[in-house]
Every structure is written in structure tokens, then in C-alpha cells.
Amino acid sequence: MAFGDELAQVAEILPGEARTFLDRLEAEWVDEALAKTGTASVRKRRLPAEQIVWLVIGMAMMRNRSILDVVDKLALALPGAAVAPSAVVQARQKLGPKPIEWLFRQSAQRWTSTTAALDEWRGLRVLGVDGTRFAVADSDANKEAFHKHTGGNGTSAYPLMRVVAVMLLNSRLCCDAEMGSFGESELAVAAPLWERIADNSLTVVDKGFFNAPTLVPLAMKGTNRHWLTRSRVNTKWKVIRELGVGDQLVELSIDSHARRNKPHLPKTWTMRAIHWRDRPDGTAKYLVTSLLDPATHPADELRKMYVERWEQELAFDDLKTEQLEGSHVLRSRRPEGVRQEVWGTLLAYNLIRLEMAAVAQKADVAPRRVSFLQSLRLIRDEWLWLADTRTPGAIPQHLARLRANLTRLILPQRRKRPTQPRVVKPRPRKYDSKPQPAN
Fold it and tell me: Which of 21, 91, 239, 375 is least enclosed by beta carbons within 10 angstroms?
């Protein structure tokens, strides 16, 4: 059986309905995105604005195809004369990034609410915040907007865009994102995100975000918003009381420089410090969190929860390696086009993850057990088939056949992490070592 035939046997995600993944992105949202950003088509063009929205998503889904090929394969243009390459460029420029950004935020807010049961731990939605970077085309405009990385090994070949995303760590849906130049720090790019973190949540971050100006407001503002991270090596605190074995309530002093820049910060900062593991030299590593009650949020569970942070790294890898097919440079040569392309990439990524979450719920497995690569291939095949078909009556039968057996998308259980420390074994020698002379 061919691979395409195997993928044609996928779960009946939407029983009794002739719907596709395209219906996830409601037509009213697209119209509203164009209206709210002032980019709706005034007259019917060869490539109307609503079709360009789908083109941007198609570019992110079908990285191995040229933009004109995407237009052709998805039948995006109105019937008539052939579309010139310049018309596609002009249409993308006219649309700009704002409608795609609005559409991403609107859909993310709606879609992430559908996976609440998958993403909760003890009544809190578990989120991650982390950054990644994208290389962009080496044009003068992109170099000025995004900057190249300069280090000990010289200057990077391409300008780099920095993206910081908020992600649900189980379903791996992207809730929110900000983007900026590589010349800006990850903390600076992430700054607007903290105000928008959902209530009743636990945000897991790496130690680069462990600072009072970021985490104190996160816990103080909103409702029941908490954080979990690692402490730095040089972090000093005063122990208030012992909460259990390797579990302490501690107090840190917030330095005067931080309080001058952020006058709302208190002089001291109370948190919980949990022994995590020891370094090779015997010094201890600690997790720190705003969850202060050991009975409600046990230390052992928090230790396991911190490891979930790496799910976001795996999600970025899926996006870059599978969805973008390992292509390390984005297509667009202008900053506005780059931003449009990245918002479209995140939107397409969420469409894939949403289908995966539906399959996971139907199969009663964790979303990470569903193959991202096979789901992506399935969605591409489905979209191309729907664009090419001229027999709407065949769609229900096609979808029923397409979603007949969800087990084709389910991955085996992950192997447990080894309990013994890793050992680097020496490579075998081709020849015996030269004997050493006797003393």
C-alpha cells in the first residue's frame, strides 16, 4: 500500500460532517481580519485579498513549492488570464502582515480554548515561553531591520529575526507570539507577552527569564498566574522555613537598580526553592516557583513539570525541520513580507496542531503521540485534493475514507529517560596502541 493510501485511513475527526481542516479557519474571521486592518479588496482583482490570506498559509504549508505554484495548485486565482509573478508580489505587499497577525491571534485565542482538558495540571493551564530565530533573505532592507549576528566566529551569513512564543506544552498549540530584530534581547522581544498570559496558568521558562521585573508582575497581575523556572548559580536567598525534604520557602532581595527602573517592585520577593539535582561538582541546582503550597502543588510533580519545558523546543524543531522542510532562510526580501510570512507560518502550524489535538482526543492519547510530519503530509494532500476536485458530492466519501483509521498517525510511547548517567565510550582503534617503553 502506498504511503498516500495509508494516510487516507485517518480518524473520523468530524463524524457525519463533510468538513475539512480548512473550515477551522472561519471565513468570517478572514473577512473581519481584512476589514479591521483596512485591507479588504475594494474591487474584484485577479488575486483578491482573501485569496492572498490563503496563499500566505499555503506558502507555509508547501515550502517546497514556488509561490506561483502554490497559487496554481490551490486554485487561488480567479478564472481568466494567467497570474504574473509581479501580481503576486504586489498582492502580498498590498495585504501586508497586519491581517495575518490579527487572524493568528483571533484563531489562537479560540483554538487554544478547545484543548483545555489536554493542557491542564491541577487546575492550571501549563504554558511555556521561549524564543527561536529565523534566518531571512540577505537584502539591504532585511539587514537594516533585523541585523546579523556578530560573534567570535565572525558575522552570520543572513540577517536574523527573533521570535518569542507562548505555547501550550502538551498540545503544543501556539497561544501568542512577538517578533523583533536579532539585535534585541529575548527579554525585550518577550516583554509585551507577559501582560497577555492567561489567568489560571503556570508558565514554565528557562533561567534566562528569571528576574524580578518579568516574573513579579506576572504573578501579581491577572488572576492565579504562576511561574516555574530554574535559579541561577549565584542566586542568594534567605530561608524562611522548610516545607519538606529539599523544599524551602525563601526570600530574595530585589536590587535597587531594578526598583529604580520599575518602581512598583517590592523590596523583597518570596518564592519556593525546590532541590532539583546536583551538578558534577556537587553544588545543588534549584527550581524556583511562585506556587508556595507544597500540599496543593507537590515538589515531585513540579520537578517533572519543569522538564515539560523542552516540549517547546521539540515544537520549534517540528516547525523548522518538518513544516519549513529544514530550509533555513525565509523567502521574503522585505521586512513587512518577512513578518507576514512568519505570522502565516505560525497560523499554518496551529492548523496542523489543532488537527493533531482532535486526533489525540479521539484516540485517547497525548497529543505528542500524534506524528507531526504525517499530519502535515495528510493536510497537504487533503488541501490539494479539495482544490483539484470538481465533484463536491465526492467530498464526504473522500473524507470518510481519509479519516477511517487514526492509528496511522499514532506514534509509539517514548522511551523512558535512562536512570544511569551517560558515558562517552572511546572509539575502537584500527590498530593496536604502540607499546610504551619500560622505564
Answer: 239
